Amino acid sequence: MSQMEMKKLKRVDFIFSKDFNVSEVLFGTFKKTRDEILQGIINSDLKGRGGAGFPTGLKWKAAKEEKNGGKYIICNADEGEPGTFKDRAILEEAAQKVFGGMALCAKVIGARKGWIYLRGEYKFLVPHLRKELAIFHEMLHNDLGFEFTIDIFTGSGAYVCGEETALLQSMEGKRGEPRNKPPYPTSIGLYDKPTVINNVETLALTMMVAKIGAEEFKKLGIQDARGGKLFSVSGDTPKGGIYELEFGMLLSDFVEEFGDGDTKAVQVGGASGFCVPRKKFDSTTIGYKGKLTGTSLPTGGSMMLFNSSRSMYNVLHNYLEFFAEESCGQCTPCRVGTQQLLKGIEAIKRGEKSHEYLEVLLSLSETMKLTSKCGLGQSVANSFSSIVENFREEMIY
Known about the structure:
The strands form four sheets. The chain has a five-stranded mixed beta sheet. 43% of the residues lie in helices and 16% in strands. The longest helix has 19 residues, at 332-350. It has helices spanning 22-29, 34-43, 56-64, 86-93, 95-109, 126-143, 164-171, 200-212, 214-218, 251-258, 312-326, 332-350, 357-371, 375-390, 392-396, and strands at 72-77, 113-118, 149-154, 195-199, 221-222, 225-226, 228-235, 241-246, 263-268, 274-277, 284-286, 295-297, 302-307. The chain is α/β, with parallel strands linked by helices.
């Protein structure tokens, strides 16, 4: 598929649509067998909306096939990526859809207990969520006769706990550090039980698949990026906020809609994502690669726009300070690497190191990508290399 065939920017209305009755959708879906529900999710090609993009149906299938009982479903609401704020809005305005998605998953895999792992900074949502949960449980238990209960676990604000195995460690009362994989949580998860961990937006979308069917859902998006996606738009834009758009749009169309007329770069996917300069807007598609030509970038939803008044050195410096602060310190590449990258660009800016030292730092970032234990250290190279390579002069002068 050529770039000329890419989707134009198109708004959709799934997540926040008021034309949706959770109990009706669950009543209709629960008449199907577990295998039929699962096959519908698989056929929809729905991928996790946290950024990694693992197929949701295959994750559910892996947990379903585990023989070990006492399974769990966890909604990962530890929304910590800089520039993202969509999950908070979903929980505020469409929590019942998220609960419904958890119930669907519980039905498929045979779980009786679910948790919402809520970001520490979102504790103010607890009273609202408990009120919504009371309504949901009454419907689920009394009207539908399905024994599945959801509780809330609040994190303590650590970025690394957005990584699913660090999240499990946190819930078990241990230091929030990533586990070695394999085994994966679908085999050995919370308290060593098979556990499905899905993002807030992903769970809400499973309810949309249940309502409209896999084929209708697949009509949105392109190739390996089906459906709509919530984007948190921020930075130098007159239209900051949350927008649900179809996957497969060109970044140039996005900038035309949300830019201020002077956009020089877009950070796709937050601090752990990629910086795209103006010259590449026309050749960059938002979605998973598949058979697309040009550059394709998935995203957890953060889209930060920068205009000509911004120093990309300051942007990168801010990201590196964030990563150095949030590294859990477990593995050396991430713990030492984040600090050395930060010290390195500061030294170049002060003139204590030559511009050639940038090549050493780029090599270090690639080493971190290969050797860090989890996505935190592995993703530092994304923003570092894309900013340094496209705005090299701003790093030096």
